[in-house]
Specification:
The structure is a single chain. By secondary structure, the chain is mainly beta. About 5% of the residues lie in helices and about 40% in strands. The protein is built from three helices and 28 strands. It has helices at about 1-5, 10-20, 80-85; strands at about 20-25, 35-40, 45-50, 55-65, 65-70, 95, 105, 110, 115, 125, 140-145, 150-155, 165-175, 180-190, 190-195, 195-200, 200, 215-220, 220-225, 230-240, 250, 255-260, 270-275, 280-285, 290-295, 315-320, 335, 345-354. Strands 11-12-13-14-28-24-23-18-21 form a nine-stranded antiparallel β-sheet, with no helix packed on it. The protein is globular. Residues about 1-5 have low confidence and may be disordered.
């Protein structure tokens, strides 16, 4: 029976509606329905993922008997995610970012003696995959269980002028030790460049609060030096005893948009701590940097879940990734994915009571 192997859309939607862990998340402006998939573990931690942008919509962590705190920013309807991409400083709330996260100078790079000119969506530069990107596209759900979901997106050859059909899968796996492990794999039909990340805005005091009272530790002693447009120069800056030194816990920065250079992937690269809710989140990754971001331009137009007015201090991002503009710097880690290779990225967010 072909429908058992590859059920038609009507059958798929009936399965979704019969599953209490899958709910409708509304429709986009062109009428395409989105669905929300809930993951749960034995401790009561609940994570909601939507198929639009493979986005983390909520992370609800138990902090006391019967009480949970939602520690990421998000919206209650897919149309609000869609509208957020029309803002001049699109926030990419909770989404998977690609084909290339971060800035690419002048939107161009050279690969195999060919120069590719990408769409420019940040002045003269290319940011977070361009205009039609992984974050504002629908992903197909490949599998879904109580604690795990895998989604797939196929980025066509020359989408945003990137070469090759790129097939990407991202898996969110929630363990019983309150760790959300995110694995990314990708294969391409032509040599291309790739840099994927997760763009959730975290707030351990709760998404309706400010991050100002939380503490941050980052186990990095260098950052990427950037020019006046925040594009890497190719140099590194030592940050010991500067305002970027978070080797010991300090108050969260109120404005930062900086790539920290990871020297040791065997331990957590960053830790966020809430003394109010007595929880912390550790960040682990196999990537060479974590780009930490606070203070976006919300234009006072972003109304999030529960009618909360999101502002520049509503959340902090930990964008684990390769270096921005790596294709244009020979001394940066390789950003090229060859057609006979598989891209592998892994990042974990581990939540703990303290």
């Amino acid at each position: 029976n072909q429908n058992m192997v590859n059920p038609d859309k009507t059958t798929q939607e009936r399965i979704k509606k019969d599953n209490k862990n899958i709910t409708s998340f509304g429709c986009t402006s062109n009428g395409e329905e989105s669905f929300c998939y809930t993951l749960r573990n034995s401790n009561g931690l609940e994570i909601a993922i939507i198929d639009y942008g493979a986005t983390i919509q909520s992370i609800k962590m138990p902090i006391s008997s019967g009480k949970k705190v939602d520690v990421v920013l998000g919206f209650n309807h897919v149309s609000d995610y869609e509208k957020s991409f029309t803002l001049s400083g699109a926030p990419f709330i909770g989404a998977v970012v690609g084909r290339y996260a971060g800035r690419i100078k002048n939107g161009s790079f050279k690969l195999n003696d060919d120069v590719f000119q990408l769409n420019r969506n940040l002045g003269q530069h290319h940011l977070h995959g361009g205009k039609t990107n992984f974050s504002n596209s629908f992903w197909n759900v490949i599998s879904h269980s109580n604690n795990c979901i895998t989604l797939e997106y196929i980025s066509k050859d020359l989408e945003e002028n990137y070469p090759g059909d790129l097939t990407v899968q991202v898996t969110y796996n929630l363990s019983d030790i309150d760790e959300l492990e995110i694995t990314y794999t990708a294969k391409t039909t032509k040599d291309t460049i790739i840099n994927l990340t997760q763009h959730s805005y975290f707030n351990l005091d709760g998404h309706e609060k400010t991050i100002e009272n939380q503490k941050l530790q980052v186990t990095c002693s260098e950052i990427l030096e950037t020019d006046e447009e925040n594009v890497p120069t190719g140099n590194f800056s030592n940050i010991i005893d500067t305002s970027f030194d978070f080797l010991t816990f300090k108050k969260c920065p109120t404005k930062i948009d900086t790539s920290f250079v990871i020297s040791d992937n065997s331990t957590s690269v960053a830790t966020l701590k809430s003394t109010e809710n007595k929880i912390q989140m550790q960040v682990f990754t196999n990537q060479p940097s974590v780009h930490i971001y606070v203070g976006g331009n919300c234009e006072n137009k972003i109304i999030g879940k529960n009618n909360v007015n999101y502002h520049a201090l509503s959340g902090i991002c930990f964008e684990t990734q390769n270096y921005p503009d790596a294709p244009n710097h020979s001394n940066f880690p390789n950003a090229i994915l060859r057609k006979d290779e598989t891209y592998n990225q892994k990042t974990s967010f581990k939540f703990e009571k303290i």
